[in-house]
Fold these 2 entries.
Entry 1:
Amino acid sequence: MLIDSHAHLDDPRFDNDRDKLINSLKNNGVEIVINIGADLQTSIASVALAEKYDHIYAAIGVHPHSAKEVDNSTIEVLKSFAKRDKVVAIGEIGLDYYYDNSPRDLQRKWFIEQLNLAKELDLPVVIHTREAQQETFDIIKDAAKDGKLRGVLHCFSGSPEIAMEYIKMGLYISLGGPVTFKNSRVSKEVAKAVPLDKLLIETDCPYLTPEPHRGKRNEPVFVKYVAGTIAELRGITYEELTKATNKNTRDLFGIDK
Ligand code: NI
């Protein structure tokens, strides 16, 4: 059985078959999905899905794209939802200087505020970063100084060296569909370099569909292709790989505690 550590099943692209798809997950080898919010609306949708289905857990937070919509009341709402049993993380949060959908100063401000919120609530964080590698690194390094930051760099696209720096700070590294792409040399290097007890796997569905389904809508069962690729790259069995990534995901998000 597999865990998809990062999915967006509340996305409109699942509107026509969401319940059917979620109900069929276990029969298709996926035992747990962490559904990730990206703004207040999708965070609340994430909690609703988690409360409807035993095998779904929720992360809540505001993505850098929506940083311009955040104010202090947003943080208060997140704080109150964070107390629910099925909420296991704050995320996804971070910096995105590729799209720049929100001003960078606001992205930084609300990233830092949400890192602090997670530490205050003793929840792990799910971090998104794109074209903002150095600033993300500096902010996380500062937040991790007190030893209280836990979390994962989702769909990690940096180098193996940077991955190891994050691991030293106590964070996990998660890989998704891109590791299966033929041209993703750096991702494949990361898949080989990250210690097995620090690695997570994910789909980020409906985005980033792995080979051999690239171009179609992504879904949690496709996490098996991510697992298969990484196991092959590392020269270990699929079972060894998934046993480790399942344990890491449960440990990080406190599932079964
Ligand atoms: Ni995502």
Entry 2:
Amino acid sequence: MESVIGMINEFDTIAAIATAVSNAGIGIIRISGSEAMEILVKIFEPYNKKADVYQLENHRIYYGNIKDGEEVVDECIVLIMKGPHSYTKEDVVEIDCHGGVTVVYKVLNLVLKNGARAAEPGEFTKRAFLNGRIDLSQAEAVMELISAKNRFAIDASLEQLSGKIKNRIQDLRSTLLDEIAYIEAALDDPEHISLEGYTEGLTERVQKIRAAVKKMADSFDNGKVLTEGIRTVIVGKPNAGKSSLLNALSGRQRAIVTEIAGTTRDTLEEQIMLGDLSLILVDTAGIRDTSDVVEKIGVEKAREAAAKADLLIYVADSSRNLDEDDHKIMELLKNKKSIILLNKSDLSSVIQPKDLKAAGVDAPVLWISAANEDGLDALEQTIRDMFEQGMIAGNDEVVITNARQKTCLLNACESLRLAEEGIENGMPEDMLTIDMMDAYTSLGEVIGEEIEEDLVNRIFAKFCMGK
Ligand code: GDP
């Protein structure tokens, strides 16, 4: 697929069905390229005007018939968006026709017969990128927006689409370039520009850039968790109420429960929505057969499950005293995002939150009654507080959710670290600028400024048809 896109002419007029191909109410065919208007004129007859390429005005909607010769194929409305004020910056025409699969294909085929080429997946967005309307991070945001699974994913991709990542990267690059330019200028013209004492302040400035880049790279983990789902493992002794909690959570969710095969054969993952948070409940096969975590799968197994969790929920039966096993499990909670639930709040309790604090666990402790579904709102709020930082729209933080971008940012960090090391070791200035320039290049790759054509093709090939 990639090689095909590489070979095709980037200036062809392209067309594709832009809506889901189903028997929906409306189907949209999108055409982009210099011949979009000519093609339209050949197949479209507006009701009020004789269609003529020169008469159809920009940014107008026309109502009429799509015709194949004398045969009326469909009644439709047509949107005219001449470049550069269009999605691709080229002339774009959208034909909204009746949504039956047959009709939509008939109109598409007619468009192709009259001179357009079938678009490759993502080719419209690729053109928007190649024609400079959006940068690569924005193009990727389009793709992420389409596949967004929840509100956080939508917020993150909309922010990215608005150019937040692009702007931050451009700021960092420009700061870096100023430094490089100064050093280069001084090396070229030592008589007028002095590097005396320059490197002392430089370390600090490079460190500052690196910290900002690292922060962006680190935002990936939190961003990913929110957009993909929080991997949540529920642990606790037999009869503590783990199954009851699972049921209560599944019962509360307002979306369809899906069961997805886990990465290993003996785990099962279930995605549930808790309000607008996605939780991936990770269940080991052992936990499913019997609720006995400690005895059946052992602390060792629980430890394995816990290691790959974003969140551990420890369920304790508050009507029973803590014992050795509780302490063993609580060991797992250290250094992990975790929540302790004192279950069976409807019974008289023999343990209190302070007993858990005394046991050295530093996780929020909440009362719940899984059986009565009490306390679940507070649980939802607690999870939100733990994961939501940096995700609220309008916040200054930049959150990245794309693994490719994270890799570029980490590469930039590494080059900056090498530059710092070079300064420390008294490396000649022209060597420093090599590492700094590498960092500048890696940052450019985030927004697609320094990127190889092959990679561009690979990225856009992952898009869906018509986008
Ligand atoms: P698991 O072994 O940890 O999965 O625990 P279960 O969910 O199977 O629950 C064990 C027992 O405790 C069952 O009889 C439940 O009905 C009961 N149980 C669970 N949650 C509560 C609760 O909040 N209050 C009361 N009174 N009983 C509960």
